[in-house]
Every structure is written in structure tokens, then in C-alpha cells.
UniProtKB/TrEMBL annotation:
Residues 9-279 form the YjeF C-terminal domain. (6S)-NADPHX binds at A44, G94, H140, D212. It comes from Agromyces archimandritae. This is ADP-dependent (S)-NAD(P)H-hydrate dehydratase. The keyword Transferase does not apply. It catalyses: (6S)-NADHX + ADP = AMP + phosphate + NADH + H(+); (6S)-NADPHX + ADP = AMP + phosphate + NADPH + H(+).
């Protein structure tokens, strides 16, 4: 069956931008629980927390080894390292599923059993299926290939790159979750039939750590829409498309500020506020 994909637009994203009101405090705006990074990839933890803050969040609770917590705090002293109640989770960026210890496994299991919205990235992708709340996975093509292979769904990297939409849909249906498949055109699909594309306005995003930034933006959006997600789990798909849209626009803004030249992952995170500001004013 030929699927109809709709390009997710600024107007669609604007509907999901939450501007705080007089009655909001940090908890009402949403708290994101973040379990990301590792000794091998500490930067992913910093990038995700930075991006979540830039996307607008009440608070971030970061869980990880002490050394990583110190790095996150050095960049974002707003971060809280105490465990507690959260409205959504971001799990797995900068982690290696093969190097998970008991403690980390327990923390991830706790998050997945909470019934709260979850963004599953990189080294937590293999945990899809044990989630209990609205969930979106955020693989790139190679990660999706590995994930499908582990579920005995044979697909080559070439096949996924040639028909990313078809494989995003297949994954959504087989895994029973929303899928955001990253690329120059990002495909977002879910088991209920939602099909969105987000076409990046340029290609400087193809650089290390921008996926970790996307995870942070999406995590913040999920935490900020806990009520909508409780009513309608499918909202996670619209939030994923909105995060991808903001991410692409932020890369464009960051590049423009540098004469149209290259950007780093942190530059992209830094450029998220003006993008959100413009969307909020629509
Ligand atoms: N700052 C941070 O903390 C960052 C942290 N990050 C975190 O890193 C984790 C892993 O994410 P990833 O996307 O790199 O993993 P993955 O799909 O396994 O790719 C490995 C494949 O790449 C290939 N390959 C390697 N070198 C190559 C080369 N020079 N030229 C060509 N190919 C090369 C290699 O191929 P091979 O060498 O085996 O032929 C293999 O197939 C993940 O947790 C992510 O969040 C990232 O976000 C980055 C910033
Ligand atoms: N050629 C490209 N043009 C535009 N965007 C791209 C391109 N390649 C990758 N991207 C985007 O860059 C980000 C890269 O994420 P990811 O592959 O997870 O990298 P990392 O693991 O280094 O963070 C994704 O949001 C993806 O959609």
C-alpha cells in the first residue's frame, strides 16, 4: 500500500508550543527525567539536558554516574540530580546497550514501568516493548536496522535508506510504538496511521551530537504536554514531528548566524529559543 505522508509545517508545530502563564510554576510546566550518557559518551548527557532547557522546561532531573552529573551541572547548573517525580523520560542517548550494569538497568526499568511518556534513543532502543506509557523511538537508519534485526525482521541498511518511510511504518506496526526515523528527511509514523515528514532546511545537521539535541527537545515537549498525552497517547507522534521541525529550523538559524556556515550540536541547541519564540508568536 502506498502511504500518504504529510510534511509537518510551522503551523502544525505552533499548536504544540506551550507558553507559560501566570499560574505556572516549574512543576506545572513539566519535569523531564533524563537517563543518558556514559563514560564513553559523556557529551550526549550534556547535549540532551542543554537542549531540553533551551526548548522550555520546568526542570530537568538527571540520573547518571557522579562524573557525568558534574559535567551536566557545569553546563547547566539548573539541573537537579535528586530523583523524584517527573512528567516524561528521555532515555538512552550516548549509551551502549551492551554495557548496561545492574544499577542502570534498574533505573531504566523503573522509568519504563512508570506509565509516563518516554523518548527512547540510541542505547535504550532495545527496550522498546517493555514501555507502559506513550513512547517514541528515535533511531537513525543504522540503529533501526539493528533494532529490526534483533526482532528477526530482516532489513539491510541500504533497504532502509532507500525506503525510510516504509521501514518507519513497518517498525511502528511491529514494535507498537511511534517511530521517528532520522535523516535529511525525518519520517515520523505510528501504529494508528499518522505519517509525517520533516524535511531539514539544510544539511549542516549531519554532525555529531545533533541527535542527542533532538532527544532533549522532544523530551521537553513531552514533559510539557503530560496532560494531552494522558488523554491521547497519539499526541506523542505530533510532539515528535514538532521537535524535528524545531530542530531543523534551529540548525538553519544557527547556520545563518554563522554566515550560512557549519554548526555544532550546541549551536543548534542555542538556536532553539528564537525558533520557539517565533512559533509562539504565530
Ligand atoms: N558527544 C557525544 O557524546 C556523542 C554521542 N553519541 C552517541 O554515540 C553512540 C553511538 O552512536 P552512533 O550513531 O555513532 O552509533 P552507530 O550507529 O553504532 O555507528 C557506528 C557505525 O559508524 C561507523 N563508523 C564509525 N566511524 C566511521 C568512520 N570514520 N567512517 C565511516 N563509518 C564509521 C561504524 O562502521 P565500522 O567502523 O564498523 O565499519 C559503525 O557501523 C550513541 O549512543 C549516540 O547517542 C553520538 O550522538 C555522537 C556524539
Ligand atoms: N544529510 C542530512 N541533512 C539534514 N539533516 C540530517 C542529515 N543527516 C542527519 N541529519 C539529522 O541530524 C541528526 C543526526 O542524529 P544522529 O544520527 O542521532 O546523530 P548523533 O548520534 O551524532 O547525535 C538527526 O536529527 C538527523 O535527522
Amino acid at each position: 500500500m502506498t502511504e500518504t505522508w504529510r510534511e509537518w509545517a510551522a503551523e502544525d508545530t505552533a499548536a504544540w508550543i506551550r507558553v507559560p502563564g501566570a499560574g505556572d510554576d516549574k512543576y506545572a510546566r513539566g519535569v523531564l527525567g533524563v537517563i543518558t550518557g556514559s563514560h564513553d559518551y559523556p557529551g550526549a548527557a550534556v547535549l540532551g539536558v542543554e537542549a531540553a532547557n533551551r526548548a522550555g522546561i520546568g526542570m530537568v532531573r538527571y540520573t547518571g554516574p557522579r562524573a557525568l552529573g558534574a559535567l551536566v551541572l557545569a553546563r547547566r547548573p539548573e539541573t537537579v540530580l535528586v530523583t523524584g517525580r517527573v512528567q516524561a523520560w528521555l532515555l538512552g542517548s550516548g549509551m551502549d546497550a551492551g554495557k548496561r550494569n545492574f544499577l542502570l538497568q534498574g533505573e531504566l526499568s523503573h522509568a519504563l514501568a512508570s506509565g509516563q511518556p518516554v523518548v527512547l534513543d540510541a542505547g535504550a532502543l532495545d527496550l522498546v516493548g517493555v514501555h507502559t506509557g506513550p513512547t517514541v523511538i528515535t533511531p537513525h537508519a543504522r540503529e533501526l536496522q539493528r533494532l529490526l534485526d534483533a526482532r528477526e525482521i530482516p532489513a539491510s541498511l541500504e533497504e532502509i535508506r532507500e525506503a525510510p518511510g516504509e521501514w518507519a511504518v513497518r517498525a511502528a506496526n511491529e514494535l507498537g510504538t511511534a517511530v521517528l526515523l532520522k535523516g535529511a528527511v525525518t519520517h515520523i509514523a505510528d501504529p494508528t496511521g499518522a505519517r509525517y515528514t520533516v524535511t531539514a532546511p539544510g544539511h549542516w545537521l549531519a554532525t555529531a551530537g545533533t541527535g542527542d539535541v533532538l532527544g532533549g527537545i522532544l523530551g521537553a515537549f513531552a514533559a510539557g504536554h503530560a496532560d494531552a498525552l494522558a488523554l491521547e497517547a497519539g499526541a506523542i507522534t505530533a510532539l515528535a514531528a514538532s521537535a524535528a521541525f524545531v530542530h531543523g529550523q534551529a540548525a538553519a538559524v544557527a547556520s545563518l548566524a554563522r554566515g550560512g556556515g557549519p554548526v555544532t550540536a550546541l549551536d543548534v541547541a542555542d538556536a532553539v529559543p528564537p525558533v520557539i519564540g517565533e512559533l509562539a508568536a504565530m
